[in-house]
Amino acid sequence: VPLSARSLTSAGVLLELIRTGRANTRSELANVTGLARTTVAQRLVTLFAHNFVIEAGGVPSTGGRPPAFLAFNSRVGVILAADLGATRARLAVSDLAGAPLAERTLEVDLRQGPAPVLERVEAAFRDLLEQVGRGAADVRGVGIGVPAPIALDRGAPIAPPLMPGWNRFPIQAWFQERHDAPVLVDNDVNVLALGEHRTYWRNVENLLYVKVDAGIGCGIVAGGQIHRGENGGAGDIGHIRLAGHEEIQCPCGNVGCLEAVAGGPAIAARLTRAGVEASTTQDVVQLALAGDRQAVHEIRATGRHLAEVLAFCVTCFNPSAIIIGGDVAAAHEQLLAGMREMIFKRSLPGSAAELRVVRGRLGDRAGVIGAALMVAEVVLTPESIDQAVEREPARLQSA
Amino acid sequence: VPLSARSLTSAGVLLELIRTGRANTRSELANVTGLARTTVAQRLVTLFAHNFVIEAGGVPSTGGRPPAFLAFNSRVGVILAADLGATRARLAVSDLAGAPLAERTLEVDLRQGPAPVLERVEAAFRDLLEQVGRGAADVRGVGIGVPAPIALDRGAPIAPPLMPGWNRFPIQAWFQERHDAPVLVDNDVNVLALGEHRTYWRNVENLLYVKVDAGIGCGIVAGGQIHRGENGGAGDIGHIRLAGHEEIQCPCGNVGCLEAVAGGPAIAARLTRAGVEASTTQDVVQLALAGDRQAVHEIRATGRHLAEVLAFCVTCFNPSAIIIGGDVAAAHEQLLAGMREMIFKRSLPGSAAELRVVRGRLGDRAGVIGAALMVAEVVLTPESIDQAVEREPARLQSA
User: Fold this and answer.
1) Are A208 and A343 in contact (CB under 8 A)?
2) Taking chain A, what is the end-to-end CA distance rounded to the nearest angstrom?
3) Contact at 8 Å (CB) between B327 and B88?
């Protein structure tokens, strides 16, 4: 029972039935809802007037005129989505089903602070909107993924190690001032996990998405939904303590944290000490891609460190799959090979029996696709649709 | 949208609206469902005929006769619930809201194997039924918690270390042969977690219930639901490796497992080596309750070991609360004191900021109450109610 909807059979609920394929004709809608045909017809008038529903040809019938097939019009509006990385932002204008209509990559440096970065993102959003022939009124939501812990109620990073200058900056409010639509901001690993789950892993209920980059973090899908925990901190595995590395101080205040031992900058520092010049995660990636023996060795070690922590997560959480992403993970197959072996060795046989440990299939598009889907799922709830229908006079634009 | 119900406004859905207090008069039901008054009345006739609904006086009104207040009749049937422990079984006959009508505790020894133990449980169920004046036809479901990993599809323990002789024994089928009602079997920590959550912690979405006894395990509530993981293995924290204890072999095949270091038998063995005679978890508990210095010292150490693993779980899962239960936990306050300190020291400040670490409030009744609630939630789904209504002619028994 969707407690959020105005009624169990509101216009928003009817749209959900149509959108999810549970009822696609007037008579199916009447059967599933128990409503009278005339009531179904009234609610469809509203949904048609707002362009949420279109008639899409007929369905096979045993004779006579086929009943009209009702479909969700995912082009009734668009979503602006961005996945901000330390050095690169992926942007998209997507339809309301989360499918990108136009995409762009920007080179950015998050250390410049919020204003210059977000201005460039916003300018690129305007370009992309123009490119697909849409305007401000078409924007139904904005979704942003950032590599930082996020206070979900305010959409602001909290003490983000990779984003000095962004602490408590209200990213949500910043976009809200510029768009008359819901704005959602979340940790990058959560949107990455959502993107992969909704695209390729819908048939499993529980998975972990692990990003291995300058930072190390994990997005959790539990029971088909993103698990954020009590204050958005779930999956922060970069700060789990690795045994035997207590001499390494982590900026978080603890010692021996996974991220301080195995994140990109930590690898770069070890390479430099070993005589191989490297200062950033990108340097490490370039060296590994070029086959540098020392860099590959370090990435293999990172795989083992990760696996020690992930074995713990597997025993705790018993997921169906672990999806690996991030630049360091992409740099060399050795990471995954080392991880797989150690995870299976350390986990309980039962909990790892059918576990799959694989690379993400969406690559570095997972975040921007996930950010759009995060917004789509919120703006298409029956409650949101009911509110949209009540708030505005019907938009009689052509679909 | 409850995909499981026959329709969005079936009799089963109406019962859910009534039961959860969302609609308790005929006109509220019509408003919430969008159904015509006559349709609401038809479905209520069915629910009344099956005794699922009763009229319970009037509600305040501004004048005239008050509309009849509709209430769920939780006494329409009963649930048989049992929480099997290594040496003690707690049993109850509960109403359909999960409230115990009669309870009993049996001394058992699970090592005797399934047949003798389950026969005694079944005999006690029959006694309890008689005690509350109910018969076989009143039993709407059976719920059993056992201290073992469970294959949920078959309700059978899988390689249970504390229950030799029970491996793959079909507990579910055993009770199913004796009762014409759904039988659910689950790991004890899951029913413990459910019992505490539904009774005292409904306002939080995420909690861990940690049982510290002969075995150590953890029940997880994520997003308000029990998180079992891909094959029921979630929360098996007794088999997470403690750093620095690699010399201790665990029966599971790994080394240094939390349970092998800090479970009841491990403590007893260390006490014996230190010259204090102890062979079982109960011995340890008795010694600690009597204030034996060595036993209290060991229990404090157990608290620290647990905390090391739980700090990891807190960082991973970011729960609102950790509830501690089990005999070892009950034996001495030192366990909790040591745990709290270490969990907060080791966890990320953000994820532990508002964490509560407390004893379970239901004590050793949590399991049997949780087992009843687990069954209640399944037999009262709209789908189950709709099936019950269709399957049988109306039971016109008095409520």
Assistant:
1) no
2) 31
3) no
> B201 or B244: which carries more pLDDT confidence?
B201
Rounded Cα gap, residues B311 and A316, in angstroms: 12
Question: Are residues B330 and B360 in contact, defined by beta-carbon separation less than 8 angstroms?
Answer: no
Which of B3, B4, B6, B8 would best serve as a mutation to test chain A binding (most A beta carbons within 10 A)?
B8
Q: How long, in residues, is chain B? A: 399
Nearest to B229 by CA among A351, A20, A132: A351
Which DSSP letter does residue B241 get? Answer: B
Give the per-residue pLDDT at A397.
Answer: 46
Which stretches does DSSP call E strand in chain A? 53-58, 68-72, 78-84, 88-95, 100-107, 139-146, 150-151, 156-157, 183-187, 207-212, 216-222, 225-226, 321-325, 356-359
d(CA B359, CA B209): 9
Task: For residue B316, give the nearest of A9, A316, A350 by CB distance.
Answer: A316
Averaged pLDDT, B14-19: 97
Residue B162's SS3 state is coil
Closest CA to B171 of B216, B110, B96, B106: B110
Contact B319 A13 (CB under 8 A): no
The pLDDT tens digits of the residues spanning B54-66 come to: 998 755 556 666 7
Contact A376, A6 (CB under 8 A): no
Residue A143 has which token pair? 């979704």
Handedness of CA A95, A99, A105, A108 (dihedral sign): positive
Distance from C-alpha of A88 to C-alpha of B255, rounded to nearest angstrom: 43
Which of B97, B10, B79 minimizes the C-alpha distance to B46? B10
Nearest to B312 by CA among B247, B241, B263: B241
Pairing of β B150-151 and β B139-146: unpaired
Q: Indicate the DSSP class of residue B256.
A: S
Return d(Cα A161, Cα A182) in angstroms, integer. Answer: 27
Partners of B354 on chain A (C-beta within 8 Å) are 230-231
Distance (Å) from the C-alpha of residue B264 to the closest C-alpha of chain A? 20
- Nearest CB neighbour to A252, from listed B16, B34, B348: B348
C-alpha to C-alpha distances, B97 to B76, B77, B105, B127, nearest whole angstrom? 10, 10, 21, 21
What separation, in Å, do the N-terminal and C-terminal C-alpha atoms of chain B show? 31
For B28-53, how does the pLDDT look when each residue is reduced to its tens digit (9 = 90+)?
Answer: 999 999 999 999 999 999 999 999 99
Rg of chain A on CA atoms, in Å: 23
Quote the pLDDT of residue A356: 92
Q: What is the pTM of this model?
A: 0.92
**CA gyration radius, chain B:** 23
DSSP A111: G
Dihedral sign, Cα of residue B165, residue B166, residue B168, residue B169: positive
CA distance A16 to A10: 10
What distance in Å separates residue B277's CA from the closest CA in chain A? 32
The two three-digit tokens of residue A75, written as one number: 């082009």
Beta pairing, strands A356-359 & A216-222: unpaired
Q: Are B194 and B360 in contact, with CB atoms under 8 Å apart?
A: no
- Whether A351 sits inside 8 A of B222 (CB atoms) is no
3-state secondary structure of B192: helix
pLDDT of A306: 92
* Cβ–Cβ gap B230/A355 under 8 Å: yes
Going A154 to A263 to B320 to B98, the CA torsion angle's sign is: positive
pLDDT < 50: residue spans in chain A:
1-4, 396-399
- Euclidean distance between CA atoms A294 and A302, whole angstroms: 12
Which two tokens mark B196? Answer: 């505490």
Distances (CA, A) of B86 to A157, B28, B162, B170, B212: 48, 49, 7, 18, 13
Cα–Cα distance measured from residue B213 to residue B339, given in angstroms and rounded to the nearest whole number: 15
ipTM of the complex: 0.90
Determine whether the interchain pair B13/A8 forms a contact, defined as Cβ–Cβ distance below 8 Å: yes
